[in-house]
Amino acid sequence: MKLIQVISDNCTGCRICEMVCSFRHEQECSTTKSRIRILKDKEFGNHLLQLCIQCADAPCIESCPREALYRDEKTGVVIVDEENCTGCEECIEACPLHALFLDKEKDIIFKCDLCGGEAECVKVCPVQTLVLKEEDISSPARESFMEETSKLLSSRLGGK
Amino acid sequence: MYGWTGKRLKVYLSEGRIVKEEIPEELRLDFLGGRGLNSKTLFDEVKPGIDPLGPDNILIVGIGPLNGTAAPCSGRWTATFKSPLTGIHGDGNGGGDFSAELKFAGYDQLIFYGQSPHPVYLWISDDQVELRDASHLWGLGTWETHKQLVRDTHDPEVREICIGPAGENKVLFAIVTADGTRPAARTGTGAVMGSKNLKAVAVRGTNSVKIARPNEFFKEVKHLYQVVSTSSYLQMFGKEGTLYLMRALGSLGQLGTRNQQFGYFEQYEKLSPAAYHAQYRTKSSACFSCPIHCSSYYKVKEGPYACHGEGPEFGCVGMFGNKLGNYNLAAALKATTLCDQLGLDTATCGATIAFAMEAWEKGLLTAEDCDNLDLSWGNMDTVMRLLPMIAYREGFGDVLADGSRKASKHIPGSEACLVEVKGLEWMSGYPGLSAPKGGVLAESTSTRGADHLRGYVENLVNHPRLREFGGEEMVESLINHRDTYLGRGAIQALETELKAAFDSLSLCYFLLGWTVGGEPIEVDHDDLSRLCSAATGVDMSGDDLLKIGERIYNVERAFNVREGLRRKDDSPPARYFIPEVHGRPTIGVDPIKYQGMLDEYYEFKGWDKEGIPTKKKLDELNLGYIAKQIGAH
User: Fold this and answer.
1) Is the pLDDT of residue B561 over 60?
2) Which of B185, B307, B413, B575 could form a disulfide with B334 if both were Cys (CB 3.0 to 4.6 A apart)?
3) Among all residues of chain A, which has the CA nearest to that of B68?
4) Which residue of A has its CA nearest to B206?
5) How many helices (H) and strands (E) does chain A have?
6) Nearest CA of chain B to the CA of A125: how many Å?
7) ipTM greater than 0.95, yes or no?
């Protein structure tokens, strides 16, 4: 499956990914409507990314009381069924990568859908922080990325 | 209209009152935003002759229609005010993430009036806007201020602009900095903010920027991304940043050495990008929405100059390197970090210390005059001691804290050591023998004092207006004979218009491939106009943008004319006319040819012999109301 690999050490913090993501999905430039978010570390440059990597465990799917999240078995992408989503935010709580977001106007959840396989952020990232790569959904590299990044994110966001 | 939020905040600090208002559409169309709209606001709202550190000065923070969008290099913002350093039009242009956040919060401009009776900061969270007590922030460095604001707002992603101790103590070259390392640095921004008892502006925004013609806009954006990713110059720039100038100018003999006495700095390689990469660089860094990432993080792990930070620009390493005759890169980095934290402009700070070192060399200063410091060239231990003394105005630091022109009044005979124009110090590049003489003209005529940013490089070589003016011969000379005087006045006149438009869209010049000795980039004013038109929905041609730039430049010039400046103030430092120093050749500008260049510049601008915009020119630019105020005829 073609999935996004995140190499956050490369990230310069430019946030072009946020701009093109919101633009692709909403035709607007916005950080709060982006499916990808950069948490900047201004002092040392250890920026962190909030982005769904379509992880194998997908605790978001399990957490949803209305079965509004499911995996497309062909592409591996975890998808929000907007008809069934009520915006209860259980999935946001469950996600170790803090990679699901609430659209406050529509009261539904949104997340990375890989732009149908043509992830726009990957195309514009100037420094290969984001790479689209053929990968096994439960590869050890992805597992260790999950573990490490979720710890860093929790400490940065203070359990938010 | 899209792109702009169309709103601004007027903050009356004396009364603690905040007014939200619309920015009239015609103002946005005539001045775009950022530097342009700020300059217009300053001219209209500040009376001539006021005290820059008194309640009648205003501090304006502005952004443009492209901030907070996918437009490349759109992270800039401008702070504008009457400068306490120079007494004329003052502004600084910074980067980072602040400008985008301000746009997302819903504002294009902030204007601060009066003076708060006690320290405050402005908190903006979308529609929620309030002045908050800042007594707990007063005295903190810029990085500590950020950390305290994160604690106060419980939000690690809060963005701010703030001052450090230097601004609080009204050091005349204090900065207002965004994100700790991306300041609006020049002409004393921070002193004005400090005089208003305003410590910071902290902002969070959650709104979107709507685009008028999304598909068209995205096509232009992708085209520009493509230009950046395929330009060998910009790829190099992404690795070396502005520090590449140390290499490029060093080999040309154009590094202003020992207070600009000459251009040859033999051991420039010790401060070069290669030395920086090998020892201190940790990773790349970028301002908001910028694919070029010219900046980087650095760390000096140990020794007396142990430090870390982000940046370091040529204008930092050069000012604390060649300018002071210092070859120790770690020391230059440490000085940069200290300036960022204390809130000092590395440029004027380094230049003012260089001025004092030259006075020391000439025996005009003794240890007794300067708290027993040894001001020998390259003595960086002295510099480390001086920086906090300047920021806190202690001892000899208090003399230097007013910049070189005012400091020279305290040091008899030191006027000959001054390297400034209109009171603003020259930066670390040196207009050497092979450099365009237009560089001297650019710095000598800039509306904010000695400044390489308002002109300098021939990005508009093929513009029809230049061809009409000087014919093929001039265009050929611009390309092949960069050291001649021919056509420099004309090119400088046109360049100022392009740069003013850039600053007012709040884009970074580096998108132009703005450079010394690099490959020209195929981005010009027509590309900009397509980008701007698609974003805002207002159709503008490239020439329309240049016309706006011309209008902006005339407003700034008019501000200075109203303050009493004339042709005599458009002169380079005296030493640039001297052919030789210490047996080394200098730029040796020909005084008669310089005046010829100035004549050509005024003529191309439509100004009279004294450099006063003519009534005809002002009318042509819809600025007729200004004519009476500046005695134009």
Assistant:
1) yes
2) B307
3) A29
4) A32
5) 5, 9
6) 8
7) yes
